[in-house]
Amino acid sequence: MIEYRNLRVALLGAGNVGAEVASLLIAHRDELAERIGAGLELVGIAVRDVDAPRTTELPRELFTTDAESLILGSDIVIELMGGLEPAREYILQALNSGADVITGNKALLATHGPELFEAAEQVGAQLYYEAAVAGAIPIIRPLHDSLAGDQVRRILGIVNGTTNFILDRMHTTGVTLEEALATATELGFAEADPTADVDGFDAAQKAAILASLAFHTVVPLESVHREGITGISLGQVQAATRAGYVIKLLAICERLVDAEGTDGVSARVYPALVPEDHPLAAVHGAKNAVFIEADAAGDVMFYGAGAGGRETASAVLGDLVSAARRHVIGGPGIAESRHANLPVLPMSSITTRYQITLAVVDQPGVLAEIANLFRDHGVSVETLVQSVASDTEHPDPTATLVIGTHEASESSLAATVTALAATSVVESVVSVLRVEGL
Amino acid sequence: MIEYRNLRVALLGAGNVGAEVASLLIAHRDELAERIGAGLELVGIAVRDVDAPRTTELPRELFTTDAESLILGSDIVIELMGGLEPAREYILQALNSGADVITGNKALLATHGPELFEAAEQVGAQLYYEAAVAGAIPIIRPLHDSLAGDQVRRILGIVNGTTNFILDRMHTTGVTLEEALATATELGFAEADPTADVDGFDAAQKAAILASLAFHTVVPLESVHREGITGISLGQVQAATRAGYVIKLLAICERLVDAEGTDGVSARVYPALVPEDHPLAAVHGAKNAVFIEADAAGDVMFYGAGAGGRETASAVLGDLVSAARRHVIGGPGIAESRHANLPVLPMSSITTRYQITLAVVDQPGVLAEIANLFRDHGVSVETLVQSVASDTEHPDPTATLVIGTHEASESSLAATVTALAATSVVESVVSVLRVEGL
Predict the structure, then answer these.
(1) Which parts of the sequence bind L-homoserine (chains A, B) (predicted)?
(2) Is residue A42 a part of any domain in this protein?
């Protein structure tokens, strides 16, 4: 048995992921030491209550409430406590003491990322965060290293397992959003308060992190346009299926040039229609996937579990091995390059395609009136499907129009929809969804 | 404009990938310098014939036939000439001179990998090879770094675009293998001599590389069991579709314990039945994908272009940025850890499932005889579908039996098939395929 020198590892938080990290660290101690060339000694786990019940059996003497002493005596600090404070403060303490930090805290990174990365750079410490986006899926490192010589054009990410589970279930079993959410809660895929997931807050945090990394630019969370899935009806899901699409909540990060010629980036989250033969359409259940379009590499996709204590712990351990190898040999970590600092463009400057479903009066001249309205707004219609309702109780005959547009600016499209809603021949705008992945 | 110090980069070979690497290096010079913190100066391109026609316009003064002088004056050497010699010799020269080396040469790595990695380790240089497996898809780095704290159990890879194109086309358009191959050749997806692809040699090289990396073990190319796709008939493809499978040529790397309790690894390549709802089944055309099953991370998949000059050049540039960052800051590269050195187990020690199609005499007692034969060999039958042939020209009635087995040892299964072929009630063994991905 070779004797290795030990690196001192502190763990902050013993929740789902933290407890798994601790038990994997203990179980694979020897194998990890061989891979790293140094031992990893888990010196303590900072928690609020030493005696709280845990999901995993861990030696009681590891637990402490004194996070600060633990941090100051460690080479590597793993922050898995979540929340903004005191996580932010602890991470700054760790970095300032020269320790490398590993975190899975997406809310913190999306909110205070620039401050944390700057602190790391100041002292030459490293901040790793593979676990913050898409759980077990290696995505931060491929973006940072593997695609480092390429130009990322666009990222389409299914980065929230709860909403993917709900939408997938609506598609595959024909239940309503409320029913699918109830099942998700029952199976543990949704939290008691599902707001962060279904309203897209979680996905928006991940979009901010991915866009910052992919485009070497600070993308503040507030600049991420966000729409959740609560407005998605079973009718929309069924209509999408008939038209050859699936509805997915996408985190979209895009490099684009706006109408004024400004080269910038856009980060946004909304439910969108994805063609059924797109690789993202085959991402079922609570799985995540990140689809990247790069200049030279073309399309690449990363797929796997987006959450789960054990799965996310794998990402933390990958970071831990990298951090430890760096301690042994020295060298670059995953520090951010934000040199590009492109402007973050507002939602109005992106171009996209819409699929608009209208209930219209079924009388001569309606189609011409609607076609004129699209033309007047500079939006080109690609497909138009009309079906007359079989609803005989209505005094006037009503038809349903499903209109697919060519790519147009978001502002033209929004203005078109507003004008459609105000037209007398349109009884109601039933659904407006963007189409992505074409 | 910041002035950076320059790193001297030598390129060996100006084929498809090499020419793209050179032109991307020149086109993105400034952006790469910002990302790295040092400039990359392409000091020369070693070729056999300076005046040979190239696919890409490159400055003529870069070309040289003097590879050795070029190598000795460089910080980083990119080997994209292919073949075993003189590529091996040049790489050893480069490493011994202290230069880092980037290669996309899978044949060389699968054959002389241990020698090259040892040479790199001796002098503290690094050998990068993301481009050697699955083209543009980041797979080497995720295996080496992101999953470094996890235990890989199994890898199922679609790592050869030509054969995936052929099999996919047989599935989607109902053509024969010969016709699909002709189309692949026409479209440039197959080479004039397609042997390396269709007989599985290319996939076997990649299996050796992936297994070595995933299991920290030397897996010699000769130990990779290899079957190509030339035996796959349209009838097998159609039968697979009816049974809910697609046929894919898989490179399989597996950690397993054999019947004697030996913990070892297996690397093998063969066409297999994959359930149609498995993520690998949705990998169409010439695309590649690598599906990894890990202890903690669960299932992750990496998908993208497996070949193509520009796409593969992206992987080379990713390695180049990593190598250059290491020169600037120092630190660990992608050097191999082979500490585990597990035994490589022969094909007979793996367990798998078979789907066996038999033409049998349609008379009483046949099913019982066949069922007894499976039982006598310790193989458990999971599904059995019988259909009577409508072929009225045969004097004796013939039936087709499709038998799906439970998991059993490869040796039991092989013995079962041999015994079936020798039984008088079996007219012929129509098809034997392994089932993977369950």
Answers:
(1) 191
(2) yes
Residues A317 and A389 in one domain: no
Q: Is B12 annotated as a binding residue?
A: yes
What single letter denotes the amino acid at residue A406?
H
Specify the 3-state DSSP secondary structure of A127.
strand
Residue B34 has its nearest CB partner, among A130, A300, A339, at A339
Mean pLDDT of B79-85: 95
Read off the CATH number of the domain in which A85 is found.
3.40.50.720
Chain B residues within 8 A of A311 when measuring between CB atoms: 296-298
B375 and B285, same structural domain?
no
Can you give the pLDDT at residue A334? 52
Residue A75: phi and psi, rounded to 5, are -85, -35
**Kindly report the CA angle at B190 between B184 and B196, in degrees rounded to 5?**
140
Q: Calculate the dihedral angle through the C-alpha atoms of B416, B420, B423, B424, rounding to the nearest 10 degrees.
A: 170
Domain at B384, CATH number = 3.30.70.260
For residue B420, give every residue at least 6 positions away whose Cβ sits within 8 Å of its Cβ, in sequence order, or none.
Answer: B356, B358, B370, B373, B426, B429
Residue B287 annotated in active site: no
Cα separation, B297 vs A315, whole angstroms: 7
Active-site residue, from B54, B88, B206, B248: B206
Nearest to B148 among A149, A282, A318 (CB): A318
Which of these, B248, B242, B306, lies nearest to B281 by C-alpha position?
Answer: B248
Choice among A154, A169, A206, A248 that is catalytic: A206
For residue A198, CA distances in Å to A82, A105, A265, A266, B375 come to: 19, 19, 25, 21, 53
Q: How many domains does chain B fold into?
A: 3
Nearest CA to CA, how far is B287 from chain A (Å)? 10
* Residues B181-221: tens digit of each pLDDT: 999 999 988 888 999 999 999 999 999 999 999 998 999 99
- Tens digit of pLDDT for each residue in B46-75? 999 888 877 778 898 999 999 999 999 999
C-beta of residue A136 within 8 angstroms of C-beta of residue A315: yes
The Cα–Cα gap between B233 and B176 comes to: 7
pLDDT at B126 over 80: yes
What range does the domain containing B204 cover? 140-306
* Closest C-alpha to A158, from B140, B279, B168: B279
| Cβ-proximal residues to A71 (8 Å cutoff; 6+ apart), any chain | A10, A12, A46, A77, A90, A93, A94, A97, A99
B345 lies in a domain? no
The answer to whether ipTM exceeds 0.90 is no
| Inter-chain touch A24–B296, beta carbons under 8 Å | yes
The predicted structure's pLDDT at residue A5:
78
Residues with Cβ within 8 Å of residue A61, at least 6 apart in sequence: none
* B294 phi/psi in degrees, rounded to 5: -120, 155
Same domain, A98 and A247: no
pLDDT class of B172 with cuts at 50, 70, 90: very high
Nearest CA in chain B to A29: B149
**B97 and B185 co-located in one domain:** no
Query: What is the C-alpha separation between B307 and B190, in angstroms, rounded?
Result: 11
Beta-carbon separation of B296 and A317 below 8 A: yes
